[in-house]
From TrEMBL:
GO BP, sorted A to Z: dUMP biosynthetic process; dUTP catabolic process
Family listed: Belongs to the dUTPase family.
Any GO molecular function: magnesium ion binding
Top class in the EC scheme: hydrolase
InterPro entries hit by this protein: dUTPase, dUTPase-like, dUTPase-like_sf, dUTPase_trimeric
Lineage start: Bacteria, Candidatus Nomuraibacteriota
Protein name (Swiss-Prot/TrEMBL): dUTP diphosphatase
Pfam families, alphabetized: dUTPase (PF00692)
Originating species: Candidatus Nomurabacteria bacterium GW2011_GWA1_35_8
Length: 141
């Protein structure tokens, strides 16, 4: 599969795969972004992508950014019809201020096939062993 990428900013870097066979494409910041402790900010990538119909782009944390600095992706579903800039919203879950440097990897996107579903309202749902059980329903906590 080929993913078309358009640079919207001269300083933008195209997404990359860190290693052959990696599922996620790494995206890069086009500017320094300050994250106050417990604060949230948007990070611009300067690129737009064309995801094929029948697929979705799922944005996930980069371990170096989340483990090392406490930054967590907020949101992360990019539909195939979207053609605007990929902008990542991250929250600093740590108690320390952090500045993400221009050119730093910020998040990764996995392109995944999905099934579109028709939503049908019904009066009852089928029964299962689990039923209405939530957290701890298997007896393990």
């Amino acid at each position: 599969m080929k993913i078309k990428v358009k640079k919207l900013n001269k300083d933008a870097k195209l997404p990359t795969h860190g290693h052959p066979g990696d599922a996620g494409m790494d995206f890069y910041a086009i500017e320094d972004v300050f994250f106050p402790a417990s604060g949230q900010a948007q990070v611009h990538t300067g690129v737009a992508i064309e995801i094929p119909e029948g697929y979705v782009g799922l944005i996930w944390d980069k371990s170096s950014v989340s483990f090392g600095h406490g930054l967590k992706i907020m949101g992360g579903v990019i539909d195939s019809s979207y053609r605007g800039e990929i902008i990542m919203s991250l929250r600093n879950l740590s108690d320390k201020d952090f500045t993400l440097q221009k050119g730093h990897k910020i998040a990764q996107m996995v392109i995944q096939k999905f099934e579109h579903c028709d939503i049908v309202e019904v009066g009852e749902l089928s029964e299962t062993v689990r039923g209405h059980g939530r957290e701890g329903s298997t007896g393990h906590k």
